[in-house]
Amino acid sequence: MSEIETFEEEDFQTRFSGKTFRRILALTAPHWKWVVGFLTTIMLVSVLDAFFTYLGKQIIDVGIAGKDISALLRIFYLYGGLTIIQSVMVFLFIYLAGILGERVRYDLRRNMFNHLQDLSLSYYSKTPVGWIMSRVTSDSDRVAELVTWGLVDTTWAVMNITTSLVFMFIIQWQLALIVLVLVPILVYIAIQFRKRILHSYRTVRKLNSKITGSFNENITGVRVVKSLGRESENLAEFSHITGEMYKASYRAAWLSALFLPTVQIVSAIAISAVVWYTGGNFTSSAMTIGGIQAFITYITFMMWPVQDLARVYAEIQLSIASAERIFSLVDAIPEILDRENAFDPGKLTGDIQFDHVSFSYDDGSPVLKDFSLSVKRGETIALVGPTGGGKTTIVNLLCRFYEPTSGSIKIGGCDYRDYSLYAIQSRIGVVLQTPHLFSGTIAENIRYGRLNATRDEVESAARMAGAADFITKFPRGFDEPVGEGGNMLSVGQKQLISLARAILAQPEIFVMDEATSSVDTLTEAQIQKGMEIMMNGRTSFIVAHRLSTIKKADRILVIENGAIAEIGTHAELLKKGGKYHNLYTRQFRNQMTEAYNPLSGQAATSN
Ligand SMILES: Nc1ncnc2c1ncn2[C@@H]1O[C@H](COP(=O)(O)OP(=O)(O)OP(=O)(O)O)[C@@H](O)[C@H]1O
């Protein structure tokens, strides 16, 4: 529930931000030719629309009332010719606006994707995936809509109002002045309505996501709900939210229903003014019949764009809110960046030194405190200890996913911040605790870190990792799809594929965060074998949960409260009879109990 409450839809943007609006418009700058194209065509369409009404007046006044057949024919030909031109223009502006929208959407998504790849892990731990996905999908759609259909509607509406007024002034300027007074009134009414309608819909959407969240929590947590007898309280909470949603929806429906009749009443007032004025002056032939007819058409012609402008105005506000969220993403500065003059040392095979490293995540409480460690080239370091002790944090720092708050990490005698991020991260092979595979086949996943690897190399890496046995059992073998995030495979299988991926990439430093969830003994032995191949001749850091896997490590560090509590080889630490000895004997005892009595409960797989 907390995530739903914290990251529910942001509030409706009521403030018009010119700066953001200009930045949105700037998105069209690289595609200015398309913008000019569709704006010109839409203007022509609108001018032609107004001119058709004028031609209608001419047909009545000159052709019909004046009984001038040849003039009537000329008008018909003109009408027909212009209709063809207008149809072409309509095709063009829809086509051009569609293309422009796609281009802007493409630019936005590409920029976001590119920037997301640069952002540091700290950004991802603070920002829910759902939030980022909404920026990439619905927000970029809304901004693209604004710069295309928003611009189309605005231009069309402004042009229609202007051309209608121009023709009205041509026909009868005094009457046009009366209508002119009504325009701002209508604009004001329309904007007020639109704002309120959108606000209500926004509330409905926010409440709707709460309702979805509530359903989700109650369904997934049904056992807890039942076991604690929370049904009636939950129903009361749920009824409260749905009641709120009912009120907001009711208000939205009521306002929507009221809006159109109001616009119609204002239009009717304008039309009555024409009828009243012309009625009083008809005898003095202030206006022809065609003129009156054209005037009334222009009024309707003008009223709809006015209410359309109000809709676009309200949508612009929504799009500005969307754009601000997108810009907040693309403006987020990665916490870890290459320093000026950062360089690539060519290899990362030197000794590694943690020199008085302290570190805290965003909340400020120190996770590592004055941590120092020298690791010789080719050494295997195992990190063990209670959960939350700081093991993963140490390897995160080594991979430079985060940087020390104080102190430094040196590789080959040089502060690793002097190296480029790419130089470090491309040379460290990491197998994560929850290994991630990408949608695609097994072979594609193994090849992920070295795209030019041959099929033979892929298969040989899988054999070395001990993954080939289970892979070849699949109907499509190496071409078997792994499903989204590798969800068609078990954790153990995913780790073996990740190991094969790391073996193929031939990194210079190897980092492995062992899976905490239990894998069967056979898979465990295979993972162990794969790890040994990786560790051979490489500086390696193994975060170990099953202590059996690290007996051969050169040094084992027991990490507790962000500091080294014990250090030594497996034999040394066992002999010492301290924390490692306790951890080891406890885990060994659990495994033995489980082996003799599998129903005795889960063995302590985490330490
Ligand atoms: N992204 C993060 N933001 C804030 N705090 C974090 C973050 N990651 C870890 N921590 C905190 O840092 C501390 C050390 O976590 P770390 O993951 O390094 O422990 P660990 O020893 O690897 O634990 P485990 O054995 O459970 O994997 C914990 O208190 C944890 O809550």
TrEMBL record:
InterPro entries: AAA+_ATPase, ABC1_TM_dom, ABC1_TM_sf, ABC_transporter-like_ATP-bd, ABC_transporter-like_CS, P-loop_NTPase, Type_1_exporter. Gene3D superfamilies: ABC transporter type 1, transmembrane domain (1.20.1560.10), P-loop containing nucleotide triphosphate hydrolases (3.40.50.300). Residues 352-586 form the ABC transporter domain. The chain crosses the membrane at residues 34-55, 76-100, 165-191, 252-276, 282-301. It is found in: Cell membrane. SUPFAM superfamilies: ABC transporter transmembrane region, P-loop containing nucleoside triphosphate hydrolases. This is ABC transporter. The lineage of its organism: Bacteria, Bacillati, Chloroflexota, Anaerolineae, Anaerolineales.
